[in-house]
Structures are given as C-alpha cells and as structure tokens.
Amino acid sequence: MTIILALLIGGAFGFALDRAGATSPNLIIGMLSLRVLHLMKTILLAIGTASVLMFAGQMAGLVEVGNMSVKAAYGGVFLGGILLGLGWVVSGFCPGTGLAAAATGRWDGLVFAGGGLVGAAAFMLTYPWFEGSFLMEEIAGGKATVGAVPGTDYPALVTGLPGDVIGIALGLVFIAVAFALPDRLSGSRARAVPAE
C-alpha cells in the first residue's frame, strides 16, 4: 500500500509541476535568469504555505516533531548544491521537473533522467573515497537547526527564538515575496515548449 500511495502522490505532484509549467526548460531558464518569475512565485508560495502550516501545526500539537528529520550539514552538501544548480541552469531541469518532463514524453527530459541515473551510479561507485574525505566533515554541529526545536537536542544557530516561530516568520516572508513579485521583468516573453 505504501508504494501505491507514493506513486499516487508522486503522479499528482508531477501533474501539478507540468500544469505550473515546470516541465518546460524555457520557463525554468527564464526563472533562473530572473526574466520570467511565474514559476518562482509558485515555488515561493508553495514553500511559504507549507512552512506556515507545518510549523503552526507543530505549535498546535497537530504535527509530531518526532516525524521531522533534520539532515546533517557537511561540505559535500554545499558542493552538491553547487553542482545541482549548475546542472539546473545548463539543462533547464531539476531532478523533480526532469522526471515530470520525462513522464510527459519530452526527449530532453528522458535524456536528463538517464544522465541523472548515470551520475547517481558514478557517485555510488566513488562514495568510499568521498566518505573518508574532508567533504563529509560536519559543519555547525552537523544536524543544526536555525531555531531551537522543542523536544529535540539539535543545536540552534539562533538562540532565544523557537524554531517554529522562525519557520512561520520565514514562511510568511516567502508568501509576501510571492505576491509582491511581478510575473515578468523587462518585457520577457519566455513560453512553455510542448512535449515532443
């Protein structure tokens, strides 16, 4: 049942990505070059809304803090983020949008997904080298959070404010920015390219 639920949720998410235009490299590159901001507004609104609901739910006791997973910060995460960003700019896809584009039949999405699998295999083969390198050394205590999370012992980068309050505040800022941004800057005309 878990795999069926995962497929249903993943399919719904992929459908939403396609409907928002996130499977079009033209719109994604337009967003990354700060010319067409429709997708950026959608992303900011989604992250902001989810943050407000999740952290408010934690404060109200509706969301169990124990279900939240804090990932360790280490040098390799930052290097991987830079590589992901460069790949996103070059291809016009991130992993999620690339898979959604592949599901629509776009040949560039299929090539992107294949390249992602080759890259994952290369990382798996070289992981023993990375595991012993400086790239795997934890930063700021490893599993640090921005604000203190009640009921956990994660070190907080900002003391004195609960993490839930910081999460809600950041979510509200994201929502405000999403509404304040225009759809386009300087008369840009990027458009979605249909699946081929």
TrEMBL record:
Q: Does the keyword Repressor apply?
A: no
Q: Note the InterPro entries from the entry.
A: Sulf_transp_TsuA/YedE (IPR007272)
Q: Which UniProt keywords apply?
A: Membrane, Transmembrane, Transmembrane helix
Instruction: Please list every transmembrane segment annotated in the UniProt record, as residue ranges.
Output: 36-60, 72-90, 110-130, 161-181
Q: Which superkingdom?
A: Bacteria
Tell me what this protein is called: YeeE/YedE family protein
Q: Does the keyword Membrane apply?
A: yes
Could you list the residue ranges forming a coiled coil in this record?
none
Q: Extract the signal peptide range.
A: none
